[in-house]
Predict the structure.
Amino acid sequence: MDPANPLIVQSDRTLLLDVHAPKAEEARIVILPFAELEKSPEHIHTYRITPLSLWNAASAGFSPGDIISALETYSRYPVPPGISQGFADTMARYGKIRLVSAEQLPGLAPSQTTPEPAPSSLPEELFLVAGEKAIMAEIGAARSLQKYLEKTALGFRLRLTDRGSVKRELIKLGWPVQDEAPLVSGESQEIALREQSAAGRPFAPRDYQVEAAKAVLGGGGPGTGYGVVVLPCGSGKTLVGMTFMSYLKTNTLVLTTNVAAVHQWMAELLDKTTLSPEDIAEYTGDTKGVAPVTIATYQIITWRPHKKGDFPHFKLFRERPWGLIIYDEVHLLPAPVFRVTAELQAVRRLGLTATLVREDGAEDAVFSLVGPKRYDVPWKDLESKGWIAEALCTEIRLDMPEDLKIPYAVASQREKYRLASENPFKELIVQQLVENHGDDHILVIGQYITQLESLARRLKTPLITGKTPNAEREQIYDSFKKGEVRVIVVSKVANFAIDLPDASMAVQVSGSFGSRQEEAQRLGRILRPKGRNSYFYTLVSRYTLEEDFAANRQKFLAEQGYKYSIQHWTGEDLVTAGEGGDDDKDAGR
């Protein structure tokens, strides 16, 4: 206990972090594995320790003692005495219930055994077991589980295909399942990483990329081979996936966000692995091929001819004997895919993401169906080592034009947000920023197409939206990478899985209602290492709903330790906040 320490620990499991205290940055990094950020105003950030955050910590090897030690090290006042028992009780739930095969049950009578599975097949039934009679009684009494489970003398029997559904129902009841049942090997496929890329450049995965892949692989025993890796955009999550593929050497299905991302995965695999073009197939709206390594979009997987119809492309999950499924940008995994993901629990699974935040609140579904968080590294750690660029984040606040203030005042909530987002003064600021940053490669990102079309005309630069044909998109991206085009205007289609290594600045003119996951992706577009700072500007109309949504997005920057300064636009020049009457907002220290 030290009055200069940055943390105040409360008995309701909230943690208050004084961002101005000397050890605030240290404390933030220490608590992130087991606490979630809730609020990030100027001076005190609020974190909360939740059951899911504790289960993720438990799955990563943290003990209640580790968490208490961290809290005591950085707490300004004595840690409430009852809180430690609460941690122990919650974390102890992880692993209390195990999912196993018949062969993993000691003392199973010969008449109850299932046939010995072949290397590429699995038993048709599994068993849910727990060491405490009270837990077994609770499981038996849960109405949501009754259609899946059959009571036996040794535990609850369930069908292999209900493995994921049972896990998801149990986590809703507060019981995360330790899944130790066998995983299918899949059909073998030779995959190795090159020592020199196909383009002739020396190549080797970075140390943290290898650590991340090995963390998911584990020792190869029960309960390993699946999970989620959290790494910043620009840090090479694709290489983590390829490294994991080289360990397993099996047929692999990769699901990602759009066609451009599919093509980037294909290019990276051909450049950095021993796979040949015949080994890789694209499964999208344009091309529907299947090969030992197949890369598909979430959009094609979740397409169906009418709202209540079946999903015809779910058949892809059964087209080959997959041994691995990679969920790229797993925080965007569409809800319908949870259904088929629940059926595929016998396949090794790797989730890749920059943030575990889901706007639909389904983090527990990712935990139970894809796997717990196995590896995480703070953005600032990679920044300090030069693996990603340092980002300077600035919010620019501007007034609404006089002729729009009354229309804004009487508009509906949704229309208010659009009016604020399309504030015409934003175009003047964007033009000023582009002129001031003459050496930067700039992305101008927004949500509303009419605004983006106007900006593209003003800046005389290409525009990419959802309606831009894939071939044209890739041509524009290629021109940007080659330096033939310095500025491009993009809609939200550029948020996800697009590799633009030379982008050093982003100007966000409108966001998606305060989405933290969107902020992660947009910031990530400019974090590739370039030997120079990167700039991230967000334009916000003052005294409007945009300010409220911007405050929510700032949580993400605070989680990662980035400074978030505020400037005001006076109609001519930018004025740093403080000079204009407000305090700078420091999201990181």
